[in-house]
Known about the structure:
The protein is built from nine helices and 16 strands. It has helices at residues 44-66, 76-82, 108-115, 147-154, 173-176, 187-197, 246-266, 319-330, 359-368; strands at 14-16, 29-40, 83-93, 97-107, 127-129, 132-135, 138-140, 164-165, 201-211, 218-226, 231-240, 308-316, 335-342, 347-355, 371-376, 379-385. Strands 5, 6, 7, 8, 9, 10 and 11 form a seven-stranded mixed sheet that branches. A five-stranded mixed sheet has the order 13-14-12-16-15, with helices on one face. Strands 1-3-4-2 form a four-stranded mixed sheet.
Amino acid sequence: MLRPLAFGLSAIALVSLAATGLVRAQGSSFEVSGVAVDVTAKSAEAARETGWRIAQRKGWAMLARRLGAPGVGLPDATLDSIVSGIVVENEQIGPNRYIARLGVRFDRDRAAAILGVSSALTRSPPMLLLPIEWSGGAPVGFERESDWLKAWARFNTGNSAIDYVRPAGGGPDPLLLNQGQLNRRGRGWWRSILAQYGARDVVMPIVHLYRQYPGGPIIGEFQARFGPDNTPLAQFSLQVRDGDALPALLDAGVKRIDEAYQQALSAGVLRIDPSLIEPAPVAPVEVPGLDDSILGNEGQPVAEVPVTALTVQVDTPSPNALDGAQAALRGVPGVRQVSLVSLALGGVSVLRVGYQGDANGLRAALEARGWQVIAGGGALRLLRQSRIPPNIIPDTPAENATAG
């Protein structure tokens, strides 16, 4: 594993592709990749330090050309203050020589101010990132740390027009974000998940890894999919010679998938599914007042029944059970609102119901529709729909039958 050497470059942070653990890329930086350096010095440390200095200067010139700004040379002290990281893509260190291909990350706001360009970037609405890796015939999402998740963690989203929302992988992430989620079409279920992560829609980059033999060539088949309907967008294949090049294979796949998403965004293909947008509340319609003169003594104003907030507990062994319970509650006359308070797949989820009446009225309405309802502890427990057994006719003789 490569380690940063103490060169006095306090503004530079080494991000090694061989480092263990997830490296979170910063979205507030400009990144320039593929900066080649070849330096000879008295020692390996001096050669590496000089190579990083040269990479900063070359990267700054490349960034200026890419943004269409005049390439103004900056002193090394100024570059140290605006460089937020050095990415080691490949390096070879000798006794007095340093050959490497590096990436340089510049602080977006400071670099834009010096170059006289805007730091704003037209981006998509927040997109929940759900990467799936197929390896050995088994899919992996956020159930455990995978090479595909590491590749997306290394990817710098600052240069992308897609606003990726990348979950950390803890808490409920393994339960909610997995291969099974790709085949679920329920919009209510998707709206609940996207609301938890602050996203508007979802993108699903998928990779299938095929190893020819242990330590041998690896073929990666990549797919770019998006939306709750798992719509395919792009597909391609890449190959490397051995297992040591797997990170490079996945990094190249991430870059091409991101380019496919950006092209789809500019073409208007990648857009928010209208069914994921929460419907706006219906404005109340003003009813003209009644003329009491034509009603006589019967024309008395009717008092409006207040809306009561009730807590309903529901057994949710599957997402379909939750959707069915919510649909049943919304179908009860007098129910004004049904919202999810806590989700527990395989356990008991909690709903908040706004009902125009009291708990006994809601219980009676649900039982009339075939549901089993238990009241207690200030809440209603909604069980699965009851099944009434068929009438069984007892095998007894009629009253007028004679014995013998």
